[in-house]
Amino acid sequence: MNHSILARENAAFEGSGGVSANNRSFGFRPAFRNNENGCIYASRFADGRLAPIHMIDGLPDELVISRSANGRVTSVKASVQAGFTLNGDFYDREQAASLAIERRRAHSPASVRSLLA
After folding, report:
1. Neighbours of 23 (CB within 10 A)
2. Contact 90, 84 (CB under 8 A)
């Protein structure tokens, strides 16, 4: 996992709930899962603050494979997967995109009208 992979994933899920900008309103938070052990990590800036998008700079050292000359994380283990947390559960990008569609439908004007009828 590196910055290029994150950019490709963002492009692949552009316009869907598989990117932070399109699922934040539903409560999703960008996160990473280490598929070797199932540990989940909130996306953070290098200084530890929560990040609103996927940032590998804040991942723990045990996941880091390489850093730039100035210490910025350039790649992490291949077992690290970008996704999101919601209510303590991890969702990969595809799952988050699907759930965002369901939530949009549930809150659409037609759905609200049917509940009021």
Report:
1. 25
2. yes
d(CA 89, CA 84): 8
Could you tell me if 53 and 28 are in contact, meaning their C-beta atoms sit under 8 angstroms apart? Answer: no
What residues have CB less than 8 Å from 95, skipping those under 6 apart? 83
pLDDT for the residue numbered 106? 82
Kindly give the parts of the chain with pLDDT less than 50: 111-117
Give 42's strand partners. Answer: 31
What is the reported pLDDT for 103?
A: 86
**Total domains, the chain:** 1
pLDDT of residue 107: 72
CA distance linking residue 80 with residue 108, whole number of Å? 35
Q: How far apart are CA 56 and CA 66, in angstroms?
A: 11
Domain span at residue 62?
A: 3-116
